[in-house]
Structures are given as C-alpha cells and as structure tokens.
Design a protein that fits this description.
Elements lengths: L3 H12 L8 E3 L6 H18 L2 E7 L7 H12 L3 E7 L4 E6 L9 H16 L3 H18 L8 E4 L6 H18 L2 E7 L7 H12 L3 E7 L4 E6 L9 H16 L3 H15 L1 H7 L2 H19 L7 H21 L40
Parallel strand pairs: 1-2, 2-3, 5-6, 6-7
Antiparallel strand pairs: 3-4, 7-8
Length: 368
C-alpha cells in the first residue's frame, strides 16, 4: 500500500467540508454528475496543496455575447486566485482566463495546450474526458509553480516527479508541519554545474529559511543532500537523515521517482519526535503514573487505628449540647407581621417577561 495514501486521506478528513461552493458549476449540463464530483475533489486537492483556485462554469448559451468578454467578467466577479474556465453549450465555445496573480503559472503556452486537449475530447463528443484533461493540465501547471509563499513542499525544477506525487507530498508535508512544527523543503535541479552538492545545499537551505530539513536532489549528477537547520540538528541526526537518503536512493535506482518521494516523506514523518510520541503506549505510562501515586499515598497516610470509641463519644456530646441549647432558646410565639400575606390571599402578579461527434468547436482566439 502506498504510504502516502493514509496521510492524504487523514488530511482530507481533518479539513472537513469545503467552506466554498462547488468549483464546477455545470449550469449547461455538459458533464455527468460523477465527472463533476471527481473534478471538484481534484480541484480541492490542488487548491489545498498549491494555493491556486480554479472555477469551471458552463452555460446553455451566451446570447450573442463574446465568450472572451464573458470569461474575463466571470473571472473578476468570482474573484478567483488562479484560473476561470467558461464553457457555452449552445455556442460550442469555451475560454480559459487566468487571474493576474496567476499569469506566471498558467502561461499562454500552457493554456493553449489545455485548449487543444479540451477541444480534441469535445470534438469526439467526450465531454467528461474534456473536463478530466482540463483538470490534469491545471494540476501540472499548479504543481510546477505553487502560489504558497512558504518553502514547505516540493519545488521540482528538474521535473523528476509527476504532478500527482508532488501534490501528495505537499499535502503530507504541510500536515507534518502542523503536527510537529518541523518544516521540510524538497528542491530538484537539473545539474550542479560542477558545484559541490553539500555547499549548494547549505546555500539553498539558508535562502529557504526552512525550520527543519532541506532536501536537494540533482538530476543529472545523481546526487542527494539533506541539510537540517541549526534548530533541527539534534532532532534529525546524521543517522536519521541517512535513512531518508537511503529511501530515496533505493527507489531512484529502480527508476521509481514518485515512489522515492512518497517513501522519503513517510520516512521523515516516521523518524520525527512527533511520530515517536504518537507511537508510545498510553497503557504503560498510565500504569507507571498510577503505581507512583499509590506509593506516595501509602507513604503519606498515617498508621491505621481503631477510632470508633472516639467517634461515639463525640456523637453523644453533640446530642447533649443540642438538648441544652433547645431548652435555653426554645421557640417563642412570633409577632404578627402586618405586611405578610394571609393564607389564601393571592400573591401580587409579576410582569411577564447537445453536442455530438460532428464537432463544431474551434480553438479560442488568443493574441499571438
């Protein structure tokens, strides 16, 4: 079983229901319910892992309005921090519009590739497939350039890993940071260009300001270096770091790069102090504490004696004293209170509080 699956599932459960509406609004009824549900889940995951949001909207018709203008207006009105996709069923048109903040991630070339993949599926009458490929293209671009400002997660410049593996790792490492307060950054580069990998890793780790571990992987040099921050040196010892490197090397040698990333993240979580605390046996701790408390109580308690005669004597004295007081201060006839209510007198009232295989789609017109 993939060791990352329980981590991702646990994170998804802890996040609870989404605070926003569905990311796919299929007013034009172009997609099946299962495809819409699948896309919503995938786009939620992409948002949580990369910080980029995506809104997909379908309509029956544009009523003669230009689709580009409608897409731009829709992106602005939805205030999306990422990408807005508009599909018109009756007009057989679609347009993809990035927000200004996302133009560096969802580039014109990337959007053109997405346009082509969607159009191919739609011309074949496979609309669910068109939605699937759109989400897949979003995943690739979002994972390559996350919107999150911190260093936690994977920066795969060398393109060693699949977008799915990157998103799994990002979610798991963010969950790990919340649990343990340790940060982990993974960076891949194409080549060291003759640099010493340790020196490069130290420099890059300092620039990332990561509080935990910095992992540097050089693709062409086949080298791996892991640098702990000064605050993490006593926690992530050389021996522990060696187990992470070994996990990466074993999978990389077998050509299993995604598996190597999964195993490395799982190993980091396992060797951390937080994992050790979680793995402790509560019953042992409870038994130990109970035993110590019992011993202390026994030491503090005075020797047991028969105190029954003492208690009987005190009881008799209390009865005699009570009898004397009753005789001295017996009940007297109470004076009549003129302000008191007579028996039976009422109390004063209180205030009450159609598409098909024949096609009809044309590529969206874009500048350049």
């Amino acid at each position: 079983m993939n060791p990352m699956i329980p981590i991702v599932l646990a994170l998804t459960f802890l996040q609870g229901p989404s605070s926003h509406g569905p990311r796919v609004s299929d007013g034009g009824r172009m997609f099946s319910e299962s495809s819409v549900s699948k896309a919503n889940d995938a786009l939620d995951t992409i948002s949580h892992a990369t910080g980029w949001d995506v809104v997909v909207k379908t309509v029956e018709s544009l009523d003669g309005r230009p689709i580009k203008d409608e897409a731009i207006a829709g992106a602005k009105s939805s205030n999306v921090h990422g990408l807005f996709l508009l599909f018109s069923k009756g007009d057989k048109k679609f347009y993809v519009e990035p927000s200004k903040s996302a133009s560096g991630t969802f580039t014109p070339d990337g959007i053109k590739a997405m346009d082509a993949a969607i159009m191919t599926a739609f011309k074949a009458g496979k609309f669910d497939d068109g939605l699937d490929v759109a989400v897949a293209q979003v995943r690739v671009m979002a994972a390559a350039h996350p919107a999150t400002g911190n260093s936690i997660g994977v920066r795969d410049k060398a393109k060693l890993f699949s977008p799915e593996a990157i998103i799994r790792a990002d979610e798991a490492l963010r969950a790990f940071a919340k649990e343990s307060k340790w940060q982990v950054a993974v960076s891949t580069i194409d080549s060291l260009n003759g640099q010493d990998i340790k020196a490069r890793a130290v420099t890059d780790a300092a620039a990332s300001k990561v509080h935990g571990l910095f992992v540097l992987i050089s693709k062409s040099d086949h080298k791996i270096e892991i640098i702990p921050s000064v605050s993490a040196e006593s926690t992530f010892t050389k021996a522990k770091i060696g187990t992470v490197v070994s996990a990466l090397q074993a999978d990389f040698k077998a050509g299993k790069f995604d598996q190597g990333l999964d195993d490395a993240v799982a190993t980091i979580r396992r060797i951390s102090p937080a994992a050790a605390i979680t793995a402790a046996t509560p019953a042992t701790v409870t038994t130990s504490l109970s035993t110590k408390m019992s011993d202390s109580i026994e030491k503090l308690a005075p020797p047991a004696t028969n105190r029954l005669p003492l208690y009987l004597g005190l009881g008799v004295a209390a009865v005699v004293m009570l009898w004397v007081l009753m005789r001295a201060f017996g009940p007297r006839r109470n004076a009549i209170n003129p302000n008191a209510y007579a028996t039976g007198q009422p109390m004063p009232q209180q205030p009450t509080p159609g598409y098909g295989p024949q096609g009809g789609y044309a590529p969206p017109q874009r500048p350049g």
